[in-house]
User: Fold these one by one.
Assistant:
Number 1:
Amino acid sequence: MKTGRFWAWLVFALGTAYFFIPLIATFEFSLRMRRGEYSFDAYRVVLGDARFQETFAYSVTVAVFTIILGVLLVVPTAYWIRLRMPQLRPIVEFITLLPLVIPAIVIVFGYIRMYGSNSPLPFLGSARGTDALLVIGYATLALPYMYRAVDTGLRTIDVRTLTEAAQILGAGWITIIARVILPNVLIAVLSGAFLTFAIVIGEFTLASLLNRPAFGPYLQNIGANRAYEPAALAVIAFAITWGCMSVIQVLARFAPKSANRPN
Amino acid sequence: MTQASITTTADAARSAPPDAQSGFRLPTHWLGVAPFFIFALMFLILPTLYLVVGAFQNDQGEFTLANIRQLFLDASIRDAYWVSIKISFWSATIGAFVGLAMAIAIVRGGLPRWVRSSTMTFSGVASNFAGVPLAFAFLATLGRLGLVTVILRDAFGINIYAMGFNVLSSWGLIVVYLFFQIPLMIVIITPAIDGLKREWGEAAATLGATTWQYWRMVVIPVLWPSFLGTVILLFANSFGAIATAYAFTGSSLNIVPIKLYAQIRGDVLHNPHLGYALAFGMIVVTGLANIFYIWFRTRSERWLK
């Protein structure tokens, strides 16, 4: 047992070194902009860059719309599958897993060929349409995570009883979903939303191929042309990912564990 | 009048037994899932099918296998697939073994509880930290002016670049991909290791098994399917990734996603249908990987419930 513990510590220490050295190195590198001393100049330059502010704001907006579209799409479907059509569950689960199977670059290639300006649905004909297609693409990429989060949330509540109770009180379907089901799975929806945010905020492939001024292509552009700013941006991006994951962990603490509470 | 008729139908419906109701009814319950299926069809299935069908057509729209054959005949495309598969294979295999070792260390190694919880938290973050910023982090670490490169050179007199190391290569990319592959392995495999029941170890010990026999005959056979399944998942995960590689090496590294990116941007293959075939090849590789993953997953669930 003693030797086992030694090996466990050794493995853990080596792993920690592999993960922390790049983070420390990136941080150290980001401070080196001023010659001969450490400073936060790179961060000042990055945060003051108008292009940074524009692209970041654009990506946050896209992320918010992606989350709204994802919730509108996933919550009613997962609810309806649970309530009325459990026989469709395997098909829906299979479809929600497809974005993990089909690489994002292939999906966006299909969009570009199907929704060009000469097609019956010319999404790519205008900037607004392309924005919409970007949101749709991101919602597709986030589908596996969003669906799993919501479905797990629905498992912890008694969908049938809640629905019947609401119907007896005279609620319609929209009221039931918006005012009974959604508040009950809000924590699950929020963790799906933050995961979506973490994925969308720095995404490169879709934004770049659809030519939208998003944060991901901006990062790539800075990386190709500057020395110290990329390191500062990497630190900022890591902090954002960390923030999103922390929020999800905190949310998980508030999530109900099971529908079958002891009486 | 209308009012009255609605009431009668409603009354009739209410008094009828549930089975009789569903005799002559529009399939309205399909409306609840219709938006989802329409969305999936329009923005996931049809765009993919469009490329798949295009891969089997020539410029005149006739059926042909020439594009698929060209994938194997064109040296540069064949090379791209080979490099992609090599990078994905090694990053998945190394990531899986290292991740497994770390997961066993934190679950079974007798380490304090905070080690496990902080490793799991960090793994959740690191497995999602990919794309362009990850490339920046490793350029700042192992690039020509990176911290590790400089420390090795100035403090230890080891110039890794003079020794032929270059972070902008396949092996450099594998080292970078490990940064999200290892944590992903930890996140997925830890529940499987938790599923190893303590009683099995005690039963083996009662029967006089040595530690090695316990591992060889109990632990490895039980973990094997989840392990292999996760390796395949990691393989698919790195096969489709492009952002890190693109930010890292620009278009100089010849891997499939970067080739496809260039093809979408400017038809570098001078044949749109060959581009579709390139995309089709990617779907085939990741699709096969996922079929194996599901197969191993169902096998592993037999033991680990």
Number 2:
Amino acid sequence: MSAWETVVGLEVHVELSTATKMWCGCPTTFGDAPNTNVCPVCSGQPGALPVPNARAVHDATLLGLALGGTIAPRCRFHRKNYFYPDLAKNYQISQYDVPLVSDGVLEVEVERDGELVLETVRIERLHMEEDTGKSLHLGATGRLHGADRSAIDYNRSGVPLLEIVSRPDVRDPETAQAYLRELQAIVRTLGVSDARMEEGSIRCDANVSVRRPGEPLGTRCEIKNLNSVRSLGRAIAHEAARQIAVLEDGGSIVMETRHWDEDAGVTRTLRRKETVTDYRYFPDPDLVEVTTSPRRVAEVRAELPELPAAARARLVAAGVPRAQAATVLGGGMLALLDAAVAAGAPAPAAANWLAGEVTGWLAAEGVALADAGLTGTHVAELVAMVEEGAVSATQAKQVLAGVLEDRGAAGPRAVAEARGLSQLRDEGELARVVAEVVAANPDAVAAVRDGNDRAIGALVGQVMRATGGSADPRRTNELLRAAIGS
Amino acid sequence: MSLSEDEVRHVAALARLALDDDEIAALTPQLADILAYAAEVGAVATDDVAPMTHPLGLEDVTRPDVPGERLPADAVLAAAPDRVGDRFGVPRIVEEDA
């Protein structure tokens, strides 16, 4: 019997980072006190009229063009009727028969057997809609399962949302993850969304089915509650395995929505999939058509910045390792890297700092790059200081941390001076420390003489400790070997 | 226009209308008559007429992305049938959607 093939289509929701909501002037700020960013329109008061946010339409058009899509000359908004209280109107304004964007494509790099493979995922459509209010599920666990009452905050209700629907072109969890990461990098590059999964400003649902290769598509299940790129991959792998087990057992798959339980690592039935007609879509009479002329398309297209795929290729050509290029782009640090290069840093050295220490510090401290105050000049200065031996590698990390802690108020040279960080360049002093360390560690010295190269590392470490990290490791190594006579 | 009682029940359920069997029996022919009347529009030849999406003939009505007036949270919550702190209390949501 032939193997099973997993087939995945992805629905990604992106919250736009406009100042105001889709249909009204309420702010979109995340984390404000509940129900303070609400007006008659987004709380569904009778007679209140929605008016589309011009910026949101622009941003949707920009993303559509970045994804190689076709912009509809005319499109309109539909009401999607349903009765969950997360929208006060009892319907969501969305797009139905004519989305703003159709037929896009996204190429993603996937590592397979140690090689990078380019996978093409077609995009069926991108449409504009509005986000729902945020539900807080009250119950023993505070989670969806087991909740007996919900509480709603309408601050998020009406925030501009883009839904990007892929064709079922994804065949494995890795491609799905790469697709989501690439989309995240694109929207950040365009500046249309901060695309933070943990804040829900980018969300992903996966339609998963399995089939024998060459056969028609199997019955799909929609997986929701995917809160990270990692859970997207885990959920697809689990769901495909579940469906294969059911089918091999002679059973059949029921079309339904399933909820990913991150802790248990399983998907669970949430509800049977409603048929499309149950939403009773109809054109919203409160809204008029949105038109986009070829001239307007050309205008918006002219705004497109260098996209991540092109930037990645450029960085790799400049000698930056692929993984670091991806981290720099994913972290929205391309402009900073370019500024560092413009200020004289070699691209690989600057990328190494950004993808390594800087990314690590931002994550550990929970600080956004934009708030860190780090400039390209800072990075270039740091690279130069290490290059010319003004500070050791260890000290350079302390210097960087100092720059970041002060949010860029002082540059690396100023921080190094203020903190007394400079590489030990007094050869006599270094030789003295080396002699002490050699004298104090006869066993390690003997081991080095016996050809145990790892023992020298321990001695270098001792010298570094004795000098407060200010010694040059390479020079220390040389002096140690000379002193030991190995 | 023929309409079954089951179809009327389905539509009533979607609209959250609780109708008993007598009401379903009475409303089914009425709703069928209304639909038949509306269907008469279909007899007019409209092949060469573009569908009208809005009676006013407007398009591209948008607003700039500038913050406007909000309601005080207490005013928003004044109409809430149930209140949980500063939030609207609602029956438990077992399903989610977006």
